[in-house]
Amino acid sequence: MTQATSAADREDRVLERIDKFRRRRPRLLDDVVTLAHGAGGKSSAALVDAVFLEAFRNDELEQLGDAAALRIPSGERLAFSTDSYVVSPRRFPGGSIGHVAVHGTINDLAVSGARPQWLSAAFVIEEGFPIAELREIVADMSEAALKAGVQIVTGDTKVVGKGAADGVYICTAGLGQVPEARQLSRDLVRAGDKVLLSGTIGEHGMAVMLARGDLAIDADIASDTAPVHELVEILLAAAPSTRWMRDATRGGVGTVANELVKDAPFALILDEDRLPVQPQVLGACDMLGIDPLYVANEGKFIAVVPADESGAAVAALRAHPQGMQAAVVGEIVPNPHGIVALRTSFGGSRIVDMLVGDPLPRIC
Amino acid sequence: MTQATSAADREDRVLERIDKFRRRRPRLLDDVVTLAHGAGGKSSAALVDAVFLEAFRNDELEQLGDAAALRIPSGERLAFSTDSYVVSPRRFPGGSIGHVAVHGTINDLAVSGARPQWLSAAFVIEEGFPIAELREIVADMSEAALKAGVQIVTGDTKVVGKGAADGVYICTAGLGQVPEARQLSRDLVRAGDKVLLSGTIGEHGMAVMLARGDLAIDADIASDTAPVHELVEILLAAAPSTRWMRDATRGGVGTVANELVKDAPFALILDEDRLPVQPQVLGACDMLGIDPLYVANEGKFIAVVPADESGAAVAALRAHPQGMQAAVVGEIVPNPHGIVALRTSFGGSRIVDMLVGDPLPRIC
């Protein structure tokens, strides 16, 4: 069997698979895309599953991490990640779409264990968009990249007609190197491990929501948008056996926690009393009937560390200005498999499911 | 002087530069973004210059190639590229937005001398978009990637409200390795070099334009959307001293040729008689008063090769099914600096300027 023949065979098999994919009825209840499909919760997962994973199937993609882990022939490991940013409004207390477009992609790389180095930036701009505002957004991106020590090295601009976009959408992709010894994987998580948050939760989502101005709530809440890669390095130095990390963006900590336990032989118990939430965020969430566990963050991550490294981990994070509110917020327990539960302040406990529906569209 | 101090100094200097950028009046006549800014011609260049280059200024970006050339510490060279795809209609004779989203980014890498390996794919989807059509687009992407031997390894999905996008926009970023010995640069181009096209021009733009159906023209024109990396490898094997390549997408061959000569100590003379154009494309262009030199391609590239390798280059390209119409179409001459000229069929000659305005919006 020559190499050419087996490559052709492989191509035939995959084309056949794509052909089947085209003819198959999608495993989705919906016929059209809804806002819930973009919320990062259950519907998003269903869409990704029934459309993207089924068609693109490959080992990298099935990890479904925040970034793909690539290995180039010289042996070097790279992380590669992308996100589009459609946040509305484009400017809110604490930041802008420009900041989020840089920080979001940096953070996806960082929680994959990579040291973010290079970004690309592609813009889809609506005809009539003010050049002055575009320059402000681009200045925010440049400043965010500089402060984080990453370079924006390539880009693209497309213009669509009036009404064919809401101002501007930004897509960034990021690239970073992963130090050789670094191993982060859901598969390393064990019962007994501790679950950490790098800081308070819910600020970004609430800041954006309040900035829309259609809620009669006036609260002093600023987005937490920030790069977390420095904090990740500090954590990994203090807790070198850290198992797994994820930044808690769309869908919040509740959704990310569910992604961790999905089909896993363990459960995650969160302690409501230990969740760091700013009082003004808690107040706004209460008034709106939204659980801060599902509100997006743009500068916080969740990490699972072995119990014997958790003290050092929290101490190290708290010594950094960005990590002063870091805390152990829960633990991994053997049962029931695949469940996230919250031990409430009243001593009860409830299941924390994946986000269903979309309380907060276009948050990032 | 410690390293920390000089890093802080550098950050201060750059923040000061960004601050100046924010306060400066943009060097642009327009106050708002227009469709012409997205057409790939003169206005696009002005926008990139006055907004993106000025803010993001770094060595990689200033090359303004189709991809950034990166070097990782092990010494390996990578090319990194991104593009958004907003083509309307999404399906046209010869392909779809899915094909173009994969081929376009592969081709940007290929003409930078890279071997395309990995792609990311980010989707901005309008609420209400049919899942069935999304699956078709994704199947096209999967098929295009498979046939080209690249992997789509990471992605993202955002959903915006009804009316906040025109169906779906796709942003892909790509990554490939550049073999060590390979050197391609505008700086290597010399008077006496020959200019090649890898095939006929203008099919993609005309196919998309006719597919819109609002012109009363019926012509059998299919997009040329295709990956060119195989053909690029063939060219580089036959003409190892190839100086420079570029795929002629938005703005067409005329615009890309102008990018080559801009501020350069040479001119480029094209021979109208030698430009490969399908008769039906020429006919449609004539009827619409559009110059095929400015019409987008999605599977063709222009290359500059030394004269003594140009015969072997064309012969090698023509031996491949994708390169059968490859031809030497012009040459580099010493004067006048920075000019692209066309020797017409009638023996005259005229200046080929950069595209001004936008005859064909949302072509890719």
Automatic annotation (TrEMBL), chains A, B:
Highest taxon listed in the record's lineage: Bacteria
Ranges annotated as spanning the membrane: none
CDD domains for the chain: HypE
Protein family: Belongs to the HypE family.
Record's protein name: Hydrogenase expression/formation protein HypE
InterPro entries: HypE (IPR011854), PurM-like_C_dom (IPR010918), PurM-like_C_sf (IPR036676), PurM-like_N (IPR016188), PurM-like_N_sf (IPR036921)
UniProt-listed SUPFAM superfamilies: PurM C-terminal domain-like (SSF56042), PurM N-terminal domain-like (SSF55326)
NCBIfam families, per the entry: hypE
Pfam (any one): AIRS_C
PANTHER family: CARBAMOYL DEHYDRATASE HYPE, HYDROGENASE ISOENZYMES FORMATION PROTEIN HYPE
PurM-like N-terminal domain: residues covered: 66-178
Domain PurM-like C-terminal intervals: 190-340
Gene Ontology biological process terms from the UniProt entry: protein maturation
